[in-house]
Structures are given as C-alpha cells and as structure tokens.
Write a sequence for this structure.
C-alpha cells in the first residue's frame, strides 16, 4: 500500500482511511490471536456506524498490508476452502516507527540535503 500523507488530518488518519485504521486497531486488540477477513469486516462496519465499507475493500487492504510487511497471516482450511487469519507484525508504536522510517528513508532518497537540514533544524 503506497503511503499517502494528508497533513490536514491527525494521528493515524494522516496515512490511513478511517476503515483502515479501524481494521488495524481491531487486529491490535486481538494480539497474536489474529482474525479472518470476515470478522475484521464486521468489526470495521460496526465502527463506521451508518457508513459501510465493502468486504472486498477490507480484504484488499489486509492483503496490501501483508505485501508491505505490516501484517502476517496463517492459512487454515475450512468448509469454504482456505482462508487467511491476519495478525499484526508490529504493535501500534512499532507500526508508527515503521511508517516514520519509510517516510524518512524516501525523503532522504529523493531530497537528501534538504531532509538532512530539516531534521537537523528540528532536532536542535
């Protein structure tokens, strides 16, 4: 999932949509137990209230988080075939640190001198 930063928002909302944040918070609450996409989807829609999000959007987000190394999964076999049980790779603080590293690494790659100057000024 490409990180998109919206400076007009606060907290995790700067990089995540509301349903994405709800999905991650749900998985964080479960710890190592993890959850299938259906339960994540149900929880997210409960959190959103009157607004709903499709199950496909939740599944696509969860799979993108796996591809980005944010989530892990185990596969189980059931009546309907195979299903993924998603688990967080990072706790909330670790996730935030990971995002900060990705953003800073990309800024250093694309704007090395300017980023170093800005970081130096901010840290003094």
């Amino acid at each position: 999932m490409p990180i998109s930063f919206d400076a007009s928002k606060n907290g995790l909302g700067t990089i995540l949509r509301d349903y994405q944040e709800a999905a991650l918070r749900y998985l964080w609450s479960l710890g190592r137990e993890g959850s299938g996409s259906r339960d994540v989807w149900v929880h997210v829609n409960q959190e959103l209230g009157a607004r709903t999000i499709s199950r496909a959007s939740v599944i696509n987000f969860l799979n993108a988080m796996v591809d980005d190394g944010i989530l892990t999964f185990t596969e189980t076999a059931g009546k309907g075939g195979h299903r993924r049980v998603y688990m967080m790779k990072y706790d909330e603080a670790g996730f935030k640190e990971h995002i900060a590293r990705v953003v800073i690494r990309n800024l250093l790659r694309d704007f090395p001198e300017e980023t170093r100057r800005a970081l130096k000024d901010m840290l003094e």
Observations:
- The mean pLDDT is 93.
- The chain has five helices and three strands.
- The first strand starts at residue 35 and ends at 36.
- Residues 40 and 54 are 11 Å apart (CA to CA).
